[in-house]
Amino acid sequence: MTSPDGLLSRHRAVLPDWLALYYERPIEITRGEGRHVWDAEGNRYLDFFGGILTTMTAHALPEVTRAVTDQARRVLHTSTLYLNRPMVELAEKVAGLSGIPDARVFFTTSGTEANDTALLLASAYRRSNQVLAMRNSYHGRSFSTVGITGNAAWSPTSLSPLQTLYVHGSVRSRGPFAGLPDGEFIDACVADLRDLLDQTGGVAALIAEPIQGVGGFTSGPDGLFAAFREVLNERGILWISDEVQTGWGRTGEHFWGWQAHGAAGPPDMLTFAKGIGNGMSIGGVVARAEVMNCLDANSISTFGGSPVTMAAGQANLGYLLEHDLQGNARRVGALLMERLREAAAGVDIVREVRGRGLMIGIELVAPGTDEPSPVLASAVVEAAREGGLLIGKGGGPGGSVLRVAPPLSLTEAEAKEGAAILERALAAASAAKATTGGVA
Ligand code: PMP
């Protein structure tokens, strides 16, 4: 057992200052199994955040470990210049699952790179560098993806190779259309979109997360993108669905987030990442062949689709489908939502508990106000850690949404255990605020 302190100072001495770490005493995770991880001091945590970080299915899933080691023993990586069986096989599966007709798949190593590629394709196909993105969106922090990030706090530079117009729709509870019923909210967002487009020339694409992830697990009403799609179709504008957090069944009801929008789908392109590799670096773009093939390029990067990561993706996807983890997300997600709503009932710092499947956000406010409280969010996250539970924080327009996104194999018992820890953490943060005179 080692203290993380020595490692922390070495981290600070050699890594960028902007590489943020969670917790006042950052955690070094040294082992994982199922839905649990252990730190270097031997503490055990139930992981309610890793599901959207990388570990979609379960930590150290034996099926994935076996596939990776088998593949690594044979060949680690060659190049996209040679035929690559694991890549072809995974591409066939992903194309088939995507819902996009005549789909082609390009693998990358991250979600950022996947979105970067989708933007490159859209701008080449439409011969335009103008794009539409949603307010409060997050799509990565590369040079092009910060240009479509609809929250200045997550964007390290205001410069961009893209010209971006931001659209309303994913945040229901704040902004000019707050409080409108679903139909009127959609109509207002569509009118806003039309107005934007009437003043703009040939826009390449709309990129959007069906449920905003970093943005605090918030989404427009079902059908919003169906309504947007009509407007986009009139003008030949492509629709890119960023499924990095919503893909592979996490939302329970649907395999992809875009499917909640019924008549809207399928999109022209979808991007995915993280979860599919269950810890190995996989991202990718699925696009209609006509869009994917518009580029005159040999490749974009030579490393995406490495056989080891593809083997991991196949084993992970196989496990997910075989064990119906989408169904598990629906069932256990419903239980978890119920428990978290009970836990939050009457707690004066909770504004809303929302989400779908195993993607649940708890929005906090300073008591008696409608003001986001990132300080309270940090207090709950610290208290949860003390109780043995890891959750995400910092999402949302005001940085005060707690994010709950466990691996999709979460059991009912673990859901109850995690909800109970969170209940105590919320109560502790709420009580501390009362004795210190408020920590908004
Ligand atoms: N898109 C979304 C919706 C994301 O949540 C993220 C990461 N949080 C990304 C893209 C970027 O993915 P990555 O970190 O793998 O580059």
TrEMBL record:
GO molecular function, one term: transaminase activity
Lineage: superkingdom: Bacteria
Enzyme nomenclature, EC number: 2.6.1.44
Pfam families xrefs: Aminotran_3
Names of required cofactors: pyridoxal 5'-phosphate
The keyword Nucleus belongs to this UniProt entry's keyword annotation: no
Claim: Nucleus is one of the keywords in the record: no
Keywords: Aminotransferase, Pyridoxal phosphate, Transferase
Enzyme class, broadest EC rank: transferase
Recorded family membership: Belongs to the class-III pyridoxal-phosphate-dependent aminotransferase family.
Oligomer status and interactors: Homotetramer.
Protein name stated in the entry: alanine--glyoxylate transaminase
Organism whose genome encodes this protein: Streptomyces boetiae
